[in-house]
Each structure stands twice: as structure tokens, then as C-alpha cells.
Amino acid sequence: MQKGFNLADLNVAKADVGVPMAVLNPKTSEPLVFEDEQGSLQPVTITLLGAESGVVRAERRVQVNRRFRRGLAQASKITAEETEAEALTLLVKQTVAWQGVALGDDLLECTEANVRRVYTEFPWIRQQVDTFVNDISNYLGN
């Protein structure tokens, strides 16, 4: 008897939990590092929910419903700025933690405001995050 491939082996279970992404230097593609309290070098990481997480699906519904409430005529007039703002909001909501992220000498707490600031002021980080969260292989179980 022939058996089929068990699709459950390739579920996106990690999408709702979050997966750490190593932040890479945009010039060298080497992982950025910081010194922890014990003096050890650690990678700078951002922990991200997957594009198929419940949080992201819920935010997408909020955004689409907002357009529908405007009415179909107005919904079709969405601007590039609105689209960009919505995409940024999704990435902010997908960011659940980070380690080693600092501006100057100050470590930044992983808050919505700080995440939005980092992704806005450092578009190369936002690009890495966007690429990572949209690669489903980062979230497959096992």
C-alpha cells in the first residue's frame, strides 16, 4: 500500500511562536554582535512571528476592513504612503523581542515605538526583517 506525504511534517508551527533572525551587517553580510554582561560576544537578533501567524492575519483583516469601511470607491484610492505604513505596522506587530539592539550607548527596549523607529531609521534592517518573515522555511516545524 502506497502512503502519501504527511503534510503535517511541514506545518508552520513556529509562525505563532517567533523565530530569532540574526541581524547582518549590510556591507559585509556578517552577523552583528554585541558584548553581553559576562563579556561574551552574542549575535544581535530580532525574534519575529511568521507571515502566517494569527497576529499577522488579524492585522491584515483590520487593514482590509478599514478599506471596506471607506467604501469601495475610496478603498481603490489608497496611497503609496498608506500601503507603506500598513506594511510597517505588520512588521512591527511581528516583532516580539530582540537582543543587542542599541542606539549610541543605550540598549533599546523592544517596544512598538522603538521597533517602528529602528525600522524607519534603518531601512536595511527593515528589509532583512521583511525578507525573513516572508520566507516560510524559517517557520517550518522540526
Q: Main beta sheet: strand number and arrangement?
A: 3 strands, antiparallel
Q: Note poorly predicted spans.
A: none
User: What is the C-alpha radius of gyration, as a whole number of Å?
Assistant: 18 Å
Multimeric organization: single chain
Report the average pLDDT across residues.
91
Strand content: 15-25%
Query: Would you count the extended β strands for me?
Result: 7
Give me the number of helical elements: 5
Report how far the terminal alpha carbons are from each other. 27 Å
Helix content: 40-55%
Shape: flat
Q: For the largest sheet, list the strands in their spatial order.
A: 1-4-5
The chain-level structural class is alpha+beta
* SSE string, helices as H and strands as E: EEEEHHHEEEHH
Question: What would you note in describing this structure?
Answer:
The chain is an alpha+beta fold. The chain is built from 5 helices and 7 strands; from the N terminus they run ββββαααβββαα. It has helices at residues 54-70, 72-75, 80-94, 112-121, 123-133; strands at residues 19-22, 33-35, 41-43, 45-48, 95-99, 102-103, 106-107. The longest helix is centred in the middle third of the chain and has 17 residues, at 54-70.
Features:
alpha+beta, three-stranded antiparallel beta sheet, two-stranded antiparallel sheet, 142 residues, flat, single chain
